Amino acid sequence: MKNSHFIFGGTAGGTILSVLPVISSSEIFKTIILASLGAAVSFMVSYFIKSYFYKKK
After folding, report:
1. Dist CA 47 CA 32 (whole Å)
2. Which range of residues forms the domain containing residue 35?
3. pTM, 2 dp
């Protein structure tokens, strides 16, 4: 059972280290901006939906 954790860790680490040189800093920055925008939109939509349904009751 412990060996499977080592294999998973090695595979995940190797995958991450092989992808790191390909990703540029502008892509990381764009990903951070889009993720924060998506989180903000999701929060606002859920807030307005909740306030709409609770206001009707």
Report:
1. 22
2. 24-57
3. 0.55
